[in-house]
C-alpha cells in the first residue's frame, strides 16, 4: 500500500487505519474511534462519511450505525463539548479488515488529488461558535435521516457528501470546503425528497 504520510491529517489517518486493518482480520469501531477521536470531530466525520461511499459501507446496518454516530457527534458539538463518547455496544461493532483495506486503497488516490486544494482559509465559516452550532444541527438531522431511510439503496451515499466536505473543512480549518458542504445540503434534501415521492 502506498505511503501517504504527509502534513495533512487525513493522509496520516489513512495510513494509521491501514496499519490497524493489516494487523487483524476484524477491526472494532471502538479501535477506530480511539485512533480518530484524538484529532477531533473533523477526521471522524470524514471516515464516517467514507463508510457510506466506500466498500466498508456494504456491512449490514452500516447507514444506521453511522446515523447514530452523527447524532452523537452533533449533540456533543451543540453543547460545545470536544469530548467524544459512544455507547459500548457501538464500540464493539466489528468491520472486516479486508473491506477497510479496500476502502482505504480507493480513498488514497483521491486524498493525493485533494491535498493541493486544501488550506486553512475563511476559518470563520467552519470553526466559529455560530457555524459549529449549525454544523451540529446538520449532523443531527443527517443522522436521523440515515437511521430512518438509510436502508434505501443510494440514499446513504447521497447523504454522505456534505458530511465528507464538512469533515474535511473541520480537519483542515478550510472554510471554503465547509461552505461547499453547506451548499450541497439543500440539493441533497430535494433530490432525496423527490426519490421518496
Automatic annotation (TrEMBL):
The keyword Cell membrane does not apply. Keywords: Membrane, Transmembrane, Transmembrane helix. It comes from the Bacteria. The chain crosses the membrane at residues 130-155, 175-196. This is Exopolysaccharide synthesis protein ExoD. The lineage of its organism: Bacteria, Pseudomonadati, Pseudomonadota, Alphaproteobacteria, Rhodobacterales.
Amino acid at each position: 500500500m502506498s505511503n501517504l504520510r504527509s502534513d495533512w491529517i487525513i493522509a496520516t489517518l489513512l495510513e494509521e487505519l491501514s496499519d490497524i486493518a493489516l494487523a487483524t482480520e476484524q477491526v472494532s469501531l471502538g479501535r477506530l474511534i480511539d485512533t480518530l477521536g484524538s484529532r477531533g470531530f473533523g477526521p471522524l466525520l470524514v471516515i464516517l462519511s467514507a463508510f457510506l461511499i466506500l466498500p466498508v459501507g456494504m456491512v449490514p446496518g452500516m447507514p444506521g450505525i453511522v446515523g447514530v454516530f452523527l447524532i452523537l457527534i452533533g449533540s456533543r458539538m451543540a453543547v460545545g463539548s470536544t469530548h467524544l463518547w459512544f455507547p459500548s455496544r457501538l464500540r464493539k461493532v466489528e468491520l472486516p479488515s479486508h473491506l477497510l483495506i479496500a476502502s482505504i486503497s480507493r480513498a488514497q488516490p483521491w486524498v493525493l488529488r485533494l491535498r493541493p486544494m486544501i488550506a486553512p482559509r475563511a476559518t470563520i465559516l467552519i470553526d466559529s461558535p455560530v457555524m459549529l452550532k449549525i454544523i451540529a444541527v446538520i449532523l443531527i438531522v443527517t443522522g436521523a435521516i440515515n437511521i430512518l431511510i438509510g436502508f434505501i439503496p443510494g440514499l446513504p451515499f447521497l447523504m454522505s457528501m456534505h458530511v465528507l466536505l464538512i469533515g474535511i473543512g473541520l480537519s483542515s480549518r478550510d472554510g471554503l470546503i465547509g461552505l461547499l458542504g453547506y451548499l450541497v445540503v439543500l440539493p441533497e434534501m430535494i433530490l432525496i425528497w423527490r426519490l421518496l415521492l
